[in-house]
Amino acid sequence: MSKRLVLYPDAMSYETILFDVVDHVATITLNRPNELNAFNISMIAELDSVWTSIRDDDDIRVVIMRADGRAFCVGRDAEEIATTPPDQLNPLGKSPLEALSPKWQRVWKPVIVAVNGLCGASAFYWVNEADIVIASEDAVFFDSHINIGAPALNEVLSLTRRIPLGEAMRLALLSLDERMSVQRAYQIGLVSEIVPHEGLWDRAAQLATIIASKSPVAVQTTVRGVWESLELGRAESYGQVTSWRTGPEGDYPPPPRAKAMLR
Description:
The protein is an alpha/beta fold.
């Protein structure tokens, strides 16, 4: 079967990421390998744009997020922070968390994050909001905030939803004096699968292809229902999800109504 490649007009102009869509699967590749894929102002703007495109494009059913080079991402570009006036660090008028995070952008397409090498600090924006996290054998996790005199808040608060509180606090408080191995990340549920480095991208693609073959309405309603339950509470969320899935025939709504609800 031939693969269908969808070309986006803005994709060729991106400087810090690569983006393509093939057979309903969108792939975002962080592409600042020489900077260990630390995100800068340009990457924030480009990812903000990409998440909007993914959210609004009904052809996209699954998202893979991965990185080129020897690190997944080490957080924000420290050199840029040191050399840029504070009032110019967020030109979009929103925090990096809001711009970079798929769930903040109301993206209900499943996100598969494939972690290789170093993964730390604000890179947890993506790990914390992934639906599936897989990692290569060389992956390590850390948080650097306290070492540089900054409180570890947004990343660690969300991390406590994925791993035990004690593990999250240990990662935050020991900061750069400790790194969590991929084996430990797997043991505590931060990572669901460890694969050889050379097979990481292929395995992410395999998982994405499986999910993309399933009902997009059922998949996206599941993603939205589960994530919103974290804010609403189980009882309220159950009632809301029940109303989403009830169409004129007492089952899932027809596509036009379903698409509207998933915005």
